[in-house]
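COMPLEX REQUEST
Ligand: magnesium ion
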Amino acid sequence: MDVINEPIGYIVGGGLKEGFRIRLTVPADRVQEGSFVVCENGRFHYYGLITDLQLGSTDPRFADEKTDRLQPAIQQALLGKTLYTTLMMYPTLLMDTGPEFGTAERAEWEDRVANNLETPGPKPVKTVPAHHAEVRQANEADVAQIFGESGDGMFVVGHTIEQGYPVRLDLKKFVKRSSGIFGATGTGKSFLTRMVLAGLMLEDVAAALVFDMHNEYAFDDTDTDRMVTVRGLRSLFGSSKVQVAALGKGAMVRGKSPDFTLEIAFSEIEISDIEMLSNELKLTDTSQSTLNALFRSFREDWFVKFIKLEISEKITDEDGKKYYPPNSVGAWAEENNVHVAAANTLHRNRLDRFASKAYVVERPAGDPVNEIV
Ligand SMILES: Nc1ncnc2c1ncn2[C@@H]1O[C@H](COP(=O)(O)OP(=O)(O)OP(=O)(O)O)[C@@H](O)[C@H]1O
Ligand SMILES: [Mg+2]
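STATUS: Structure written out below.
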């Protein structure tokens, strides 16, 4: 393990919001966007990420004109001094290493740490290092300091870009709070999610109920960059640890049969479920009052009773009187003082969409939802 790294530059500006600006003192190709860097300034160690590399110059004339017509010595002098590279460091964490060793403050500080009055671990960054403080690349010990040492429940989720130091996740801590994985498309969110889920299962720290909209996690997937197969959770852990459910009878997951299928009964759909989808279904205020009227007339059976009503125009009897036929939406609407056209729209364009889904049925085969719970 190399503990000390050479400095790669020094702080020349920036701030907490915009990040620290670093003048690079090594060739630019030694540092990449996304690498972990450390700035040790007195008792504080700043940890951060490189978010940008920029070409700068103290005099734009030398940047605009090629330097190869100059003598090599002058050319060399220009590069690095007049022409240089700056890095942007996004500071993420700060570590207080305490006052200088051998001082009275040090002894007092160590006392406070021992009595839990002070926690020296990583904290959010609330201050800035001094001008010209040196910055170096994070070494294995720094990465372990921030992400954790190897041990029980510590799962390696990946490695740092340049040196390949393991980046660990404390799974026991991880499952205690909510987390999200964010990134632009194609940056590896699904890959990382699958890896974290595999870690949770391997270490047996928690059970997971995965809503897998694109059928990505259970069965084997293809690495689209290298065109090789990536093992899915089901093929890694087997059916005793991973159960795959599909929506609706006969549904397949990536061409494979699931372990069981899920169906939702008409009777399980509540008014509040529809209300939750009011944006997606483009429900209006009138449809809202129609829903309320439906519940008043039919109670818990509202969905199945309403879906079974027919949409029909008025018909004319022998005396020439026009009326909605029995069992029509119109007849129900008139009886309950609901706008007929609104009720028809709710029936035809909104709720029919649910009823026509293969997994929404009048009588489901079993009760898999309760079994899952
Ligand atoms: N940790 C990794 N190591 C190597 N290659 C990876 C890694 N993560 C992702 N990739 C590559 O990047 C590709 C896209 O990854 P992934 O499907 O996870 O991205 P995504 O962020 O989920 O994308 P989308 O937003 O389209 O769902 C993968 O097919 C794989 O080739
Ligand atoms: Mg994805």
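REMARKS: The radius of gyration is 32 Å. The pocket of magnesium ion (ligand 2) is lined by residues 189-190 (CB under 6 Å).
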